[in-house]
From TrEMBL, chain A:
Complex and partners: NDH-1 is composed of 14 different subunits. Subunits NuoA, H, J, K, L, M, N constitute the membrane sector of the complex.
InterPro entries reported in the protein's UniProt record: NADH_UbQ_OxRdtase_su1/FPO (IPR001694), NADH_UbQ_OxRdtase_su1_CS (IPR018086)
Taxon lineage: Bacteria, Bacillati, Bacillota, Bacilli, Bacillales
Function: NDH-1 shuttles electrons from NADH, via FMN and iron-sulfur (Fe-S) centers, to quinones in the respiratory chain. The immediate electron acceptor for the enzyme in this species is believed to be ubiquinone. Couples the redox reaction to proton translocation (for every two electrons transferred, four hydrogen ions are translocated across the cytoplasmic membrane), and thus conserves the redox energy in a proton gradient. This subunit may bind ubiquinone.
The keyword Cell membrane belongs to this UniProt entry's keyword annotation: yes
Statement: the UniProt record of this protein carries the keyword Secreted: no
Catalyses which reaction(s): a quinone + NADH + 5 H(+)(in) = a quinol + NAD(+) + 4 H(+)(out)
Top-level taxon of origin: Bacteria
Protein name as catalogued: NADH-quinone oxidoreductase subunit H
EC number: 7.1.1.-
Automatic annotation (TrEMBL), chain B:
Pfam families the record matches: Complex1_30kDa
Name of this protein: NADH-quinone oxidoreductase subunit C
Species of origin: Brevibacillus centrosporus
Family annotation (Gene3D superfamilies): NADH:ubiquinone oxidoreductase, 30kDa subunit (3.30.460.80)
Spans annotated as Disordered: 1-118
Membership in a protein family: Belongs to the complex I 30 kDa subunit family.
Record gene name: nuoC
Alphabetized PANTHER family for the sequence: NADH DEHYDROGENASE [UBIQUINONE] IRON-SULFUR PROTEIN 3, MITOCHONDRIAL, NADH DEHYDROGENASE UBIQUINONE IRON-SULFUR PROTEIN 3
The NADH:ubiquinone oxidoreductase 30kDa subunit domain, residue ranges: 230-345
Entry keywords, A to Z: Cell membrane, Membrane, NAD, Quinone, Translocase, Transport
Recorded superkingdom: Bacteria
A single Gene Ontology CC term: plasma membrane
Leading EC class: translocase
Compartment list: Cell membrane
TrEMBL record, chain C:
Name of the protein: NADH-quinone oxidoreductase subunit D
Gene that specifies this protein: nuoD
Family, per entry: Belongs to the complex I 49 kDa subunit family.
UniProt xrefs under NCBIfam families: PRK06075.1, PRK12322.1
Segments forming domain NADH-quinone oxidoreductase subunit D: 136-307, 308-381
Membrane topology classification: Peripheral membrane protein
Reactions catalysed: a quinone + NADH + 5 H(+)(in) = a quinol + NAD(+) + 4 H(+)(out)
Length: 335, 350, 382
């Protein structure tokens, strides 16, 4: 795959590119379909319910039916909405979520682009998602979606800071921003151990970045009905849902790579199990954790959320950087 | 009653009481003549004689607030009669337990009567020169014995006396009781446990505002014997804050407020509660159907806000003084007031 | 039901020329957190509420007007539809008012059945509140736990009177249906089950940091304000006033049972949360005693005339519903239909304080405060 990038552009490798993207998209859609199914089942069990069990065996086709319904629905648009932006917003939200996956090394061999600054690329692109959310909130010409959009902007921008800060420690330890090298550097011990503070900050900030419980304020249904996508329906709404779950996919991948050792086995003796299995296992663990939180936690208030980001998470993340820097300097014999 | 006499200090009260006692003694003979002389005042004079017989043993009556020396001749006459009635009340109290038992019920009957209310007003206002001369003595008898009822110790007996007097007055002067009166034909029975409270409320109100603020007062047997006061519409805006602020009353909680359409009039019903004294009182204010208006108590009890709006919405009673009197349950463009008995639906399709 | 209740101001900054306008937000009539068709017009500046005006009446059915053309037994089903979360207390207050007027004796067994039904209903009502309040705060799980347990109560009611929410169970003079065989045992089992279940509720929610930070110190008022605004029930008790009509003006047979009236002094949403939870415990305590003393046999309806004609006059009685003080006023002219019937609805009266509480709060607190008042729109609009 990587060799394709080095070649001169031609019709042949362009088709390959497109094919690869389509395959990834298919994998993604499969993931999203069953992540939603999994989420509903898990939360159902936690809440003494059964969850979807009607469409297909064990309800496995429930999400397929839901998506089909969304795609077949009439495409409604508020009369006074900003037409261009209203159409653009779901794309703006979805495209970066999909694009970040390009640099993710799922295993040693399965990766689309091996960028030297993979981490930076991820952070930069994921920052664009917020534009989609604000645009959606504004263009809908609805007060609830406007408030939801602005909340979302404030929240995502605020939490991006501790999110980035929390991974600086890893960059310091590894000395690289290349995601593949970060994984390789965890051969001895996963980053979750030396960078535990960073891990905690990252998990919390990631929840907020993903707008998920307990930080799901932008779409706080009890206050804002549905937040920024209150006016969206049909396939545009499906795009937002897709973006949310793809972004979750991306975040899960990133956490697995940064902190959980990527495709590395839990112990070298278990290396006969293929890397992709390990990757999927760790990744699923994170996704399950997400759902678990959603089933238990109430929602924070918007002012608490902001003060938590700036007054708690950011100082802790900065402290983590300082600590890491001191320890590394010590190891390098600076003191 | 003159304005400066509304809230006498305890010393003044005591002094006035002493004076009154002396006066009562001194005037007894004169009163006897007068009372006897007024042939038309059958009930009053009869009772006056009873009072005469037993007065020496009877406990002192509460005082008319005005010293004799300040009185106009008319007032003096009135005071005499009042004193007679007081003495009579005491006398009866001391005399007949049986009477008391009977009186409790008829007392309610009498209390309901408009005549009685007017009598109370007349009696309390010692300067009530405008009162009809004919029924005066009887009325005053009724009114003052109500005063006497304020004394805790003799409350029940006094109520009995009041009842007799009031009944007599009612029978004599008007001969009819109020339409809402339900106790009139009930069998005689013991006075209600809430009677002392009712008497206390009456005495506080009459002390502060004069008896004319009370149109009627009675124990409502049907509503767990809640003391019920009917306050005149014109004075309600003064009485309401008093009911809340007065130390002995302290009705700080408005439990319910609503209106009733009685076809010939409207009534607004308030159920008040005092958390300090753990007592209830029901207050009713009447208004006409055509120009129905009752002063708002929103400034006294905030809780009246929506209740008044609801009453306005459904019954069309206006509450001057309410800050935001709009319809609350029905749409703003609704025509008519549905809970009025003559309400006709504007649009049958609705 | 008004369109233009609030006006907003448009300001243009002299320096920058930027035009700012306050925003009017219609919360409801269709909104997930207004617990029914209730509308709140709020003027907001950012997320801060400047002014809030409640608008209601969307569920107004004219119960009081309808009642004037119905005889007393026919009115009972209408009371079910008022506070549909706790219909037993509504049933009771109407029957109690008529019985007070007529001076009727209620048979022992009927009294017990009434009390048990009312207390079970109180537990059910508080469970619904607990679930929906947590849903307002953003936690979805508790709602389903609460509804699982409430379902058991509804099943009990179903066996008792054939309905799960609109019971139409009580009659003037007694109750309509006797407890079916084994029902008392089932109710006893439920009480024991619920006593065991309640601690897990606390485990799940009460100690949660986010939950506490959402409701502690929010929606605060003192006892003077509470009295001034005619608040009742938990809203009043949360400010330190110990007042429960079951205890202070006993009706039915509440004076025979031991129970406490929990109070708090903070007057915030947290206090109200704790009080409602404590009230579930106390209701279970009453239920336990009542079920033990339940008379083995007896009449379920007293000697009632064929046509119910209360004497001419008026009455006002009040009892303690899960939401506060529910009162019933009847003006009778000696006929079989009331001249005027009026319900004092605790939801309606308690809601009055909302605009005051909301001033200066932010949108998220609005939901927390509104939820803590515990309103049922069927009752607000009547």
């Amino acid at each position: 795959m990587s060799t394709l990038l080095q070649q001169a552009p031609s019709l042949g490798n362009t088709i390959w590119f497109i094919l690869a993207a389509v395959v990834l998209l298919a994998v993604l859609l499969g993931f999203v379909t069953y992540a939603i199914y999994f989420e509903r089942k898990v939360i159902g069990w936690m809440q003494l319910r059964i969850g979807p069990n009607r469409v297909g065996p064990l309800g496995l086709l429930q999400t397929v039916a839901d998506v089909t319904k969304l795609l077949l629905k009439e495409d409604t648009r508020p009369l006074h909405a900003d037409k261009a932006l209203f159409t653009l917003a779901p794309i703006l939200a979805y495209a970066p979520a999909f694009a970040v996956l390009a640099v993710m090394p799922f295993t040693e061999s399965i990766q689309f682009a091996d960028l030297g600054i993979g981490l930076l690329y991820y952070i930069a692109l994921s920052g664009i998602t917020v534009l989609g959310v604000i645009t959606a909130g504004w263009a809908s010409n609805n007060k609830y979606s406007l408030i939801g959009g602005l909340r979302s902007a404030a929240q995502m921008i605020s939490y991006e800071v501790p999110l980035v800060m929390s991974v600086v420690g890893i960059v310091l330890m590894t000395g690289s921003m290349n995601l593949r090298e970060i994984v390789e550097a965890q051969r001895d011990v996963w980053n979750i151990v030396p960078q535990f503070i960073g891990f905690v900050v990252f998990i919390v900030a990631a929840q907020a970045e993903l707008n998920r419980t307990p930080f799901d304020l932008p779409e706080a249904e009890s206050e804002l009905v549905a937040g920024y996508h209150v006016e969206y329906s049909g396939f545009r709404f499906a795009m937002f849902m897709l973006a949310e779950y793809v972004y979750m996919f991306g975040m899960g991948t990133l956490i697995t790579i940064l902190f959980l050792g990527g495709w590395l086995p839990i112990h070298p003796a278990l290396s006969f199990i293929p890397g992709i299995i390990w990757f999927v296992l760790k990744f699923s663990l994170y996704v399950f954790f997400q759902f678990w939180l959603r089933a238990t936690m109430p929602r924070m208030r918007v002012d608490q959320l902001m003060s938590f980001a700036w007054k708690v998470l950011l100082p802790v993340a900065l402290f983590n950087i300082l600590l890491t820097a001191v320890v590394i300097s010590y190891q390098n014999g600076m003191f | 009653m003159s304005e400066e006499k509304r809230r006498p200090t305890p010393e003044e009260k005591a002094q006035a009481a002493a004076e009154a006692r002396a006066k009562a003694e001194a005037l007894r003979k004169l009163r006897e003549q007068e009372a006897a002389g007024e042939a038309s005042q059958e009930a009053a004079s009869q009772m006056g004689e009873q009072g005469e017989n037993t007065a020496p043993e009877s406990p002192p009556a509460p005082a008319p607030a005005k010293p004799v020396s300040e009185m106009t001749p008319e007032e003096k006459a009135a005071a005499k009669k009042a004193a007679a009635a007081e003495a009579l009340a005491k006398a009866q109290a001391a005399k007949a337990a049986k009477d008391a038992a009977q009186g409790g019920d008829t007392g309610e009957a009498g209390a309901d009567a408009d005549a009685k209310a007017k009598a109370a007003a007349a009696a309390k206002a010692k300067a009530a020169a405008a009162a009809a001369a004919k029924a005066k003595a009887a009325r005053e008898a009724g009114g003052d014995s109500a005063d006497a009822g304020g004394e805790d110790a003799k409350a029940k007996a006094a109520a009995a006396a009041k009842a007799k007097a009031a009944a007599a007055a009612a029978a004599k002067a008007k001969g009819a009781t109020g339409a809402e009166d339900s106790g009139a034909d009930a069998a005689p029975k013991a006075p209600s446990k809430n009677q002392p409270y009712l008497d206390k409320y009456i005495s506080r109100l009459t002390e502060a505002f004069g008896a004319e603020v009370l149109e009627a007062s009675y124990i409502n047997e049907l509503a767990k014997e809640v003391p019920t006061l009917v306050i005149t519409n014109e004075r309600w805006h003064e009485v309401a804050p008093f009911l809340k602020e007065d130390e002995q009353l302290g009705f700080d909680y408005l439990s319910d407020l609503h209106g009733v359409d009685y076809e010939d009039r409207m009534e607004v019903y308030y159920h008040l509660y005092s958390y300090k004294n753990r007592q209830s009182v029901a207050v009713k204010v009447k208004t006409s159907r055509e120009q129905s208006s009752v002063p708002s108590v929103m400034n006294v009890w905030q809780g009246a806000n929506w209740n008044e709006r609801e009453t306005f919405d459904l019954l069309g009673i206006h509450f001057p003084g309410h800050r935001d009197l709009r319809r609350i349950l029905l749409p703003d463009d609704w025509v008519g007031y549905p809970l009025r008995k003559d309400y006709v639906q504007y649009d049958e399709e609705v | 039901m008004n369109q233009n209740i609030l006006t907003t101001q448009v300001e243009t900054s002299p320096d920058t020329g930027i035009r700012t306008e306050e925003m009017l937000l219609n919360v409801g009539p269709q909104h997930p957190s207004t617990h029914g068709v209730f509308r709140l017009v709020v003027k907001i500046d950012g997320e801060t509420i400047r002014e809030a005006i409640p608008v209601m009446g969307y569920l107004h059915r004219g119960t009081e007007k309808l009642a004037e053309n119905l005889n007393y037994t026919q009115i009972i089903p209408y009371t079910d539809r008022m506070d549909y979360v706790s219909a037993m207390t509504n049933n009771y207050v109407l029957c109690h008012a008529v019985e007070t007027m007529m001076g009727l004796e209620i048979p022992e067994r009927a009294q017990f059945l009434r009390l048990i039904a009312m207390e079970l209903n109180r537990v059910a009502s508080h469970l619904v509140w607990w679930g929906t309040y947590l849903l307002d705060i953003g936690a979805m799980g508790p709602f389903l736990y609460a509804f699982r347990d409430r379902e058991m109560i509804l099943d009990l009611f179903n066996e008792l009177c054939g309905a799960r929410m609109t019971f139409n169970y009580m009659r003037v003079g007694g109750v309509k249906w006797d407890a079916p065989p084994g029902w008392i045992e089932k109710a006893k089992d439920f009480v024991q089950y619920m006593k065991k279940e309640l601690p897990s509720y606390h485990q799940l929610v009460t100690g949660n940091e986010i939950f506490i930070s959402r409701i502690k110190g929010i929606g605060k008022f003192d006892s003077k304000t509470a009295l001034d605004y005619s608040l009742s029930g938990v809203m009043l008790r949360s400010t330190g006033i110990k007042w429960d009509i079951r205890k202070d003006e006993p009706y039915c047979i509440y004076d025979r049972f031991e129970f406490d009236v929990p109070t708090a002094t903070e007057g915030d949403c947290m206090a109200r949360y704790h009080l409602r939870m404590a009230e579930i415990e106390q209701s279970l305590r009453i239920l336990e005693q009542a079920l033990d003393q339940f008379p083995a046999e007896g009449e379920i309806i007293g000697k009632v005339p064929r046509v119910i004609r209360p004497p001419a006059g008026e009455t006002y009685v009040r009892i303690e519903s899960p939401r506060g003080e529910i009162g019933c006023y009847i003006a009778s002219q000696g006929k079989d239909k009331p001249w005027r019937l009026k319900f004092r609805r605790p939801s309606f009266t308690n809601l009055q304080i909302l605009p005051k509480l909301l001033e200066g709060e932010n949108l998220a607190n609005m939901i927390a405060i509104l939820g803590s008042i515990d309103i049922v729109l069927g009752e607000v609009d009547c």
